[in-house]
Amino acid sequence: MCLGSRIAAFQLRKMRYRSTSRKAPLTSLRGAVLRGLAPDGGLYMPAEIARHSPEELEEFRKLPFTEVCFRVVKPFATPDVPEEVLWQIVSEAINFPVRL
Q1: Dihedral through CA 60, CA 85, CA 26, CA 56, nearest 10?
Q2: What is the pLDDT of residue 22?
Q3: 65, 90 Cβ separation under 8 angstroms
Q4: What would the mean pLDDT of 39-54 be, rounded to a whole number?
Q5: How crowded is residue 98: how many other Cβ atoms within 10 Å of its Cβ?
Q6: Which CATH number fits domain 3-93: 3.40.50.1000, 3.90.1380.10, 3.10.580.10, 3.10.20.880?
Q7: Is 26 left (phi over 0), alpha (psi -120 to 50) or beta?
Q8: What is the DSSP secondary structure assignment for residue 27, as one 8-state letter?
Q9: Residue-wise pLDDT tens digits, 8-25
Q10: 3-class SS at 45?
Q11: What is the pTM of this model?
Q12: Contacts for 65 with CB less than 8 Å, ≥ 6 apart
């Protein structure tokens, strides 16, 4: 399976979060945010991290920084955070000029 296909398949799955201690069950973004710390005392982190293809990274160069931020964070937040809400969060948080 090529990298682009793996990323597309990755983005269709719901992101799960695991404890850094690996003794607590996997949870959703909502569960991780509401709990703060995992029951085993560990911190929550994504169970998987998608890699962006060289083509995607090249495309990022042509996009506004807000759009790049949205595309990078999207796999970690959706579907727990609807895309429209995520876009609003990102566009309000990244409201300053960035020189790349």
Answers
A1: -10
A2: 96
A3: no
A4: 93
A5: 10
A6: 3.90.1380.10
A7: beta
A8: B
A9: 454 456 899 999 999 999
A10: strand
A11: 0.75
A12: 94, 98, 100
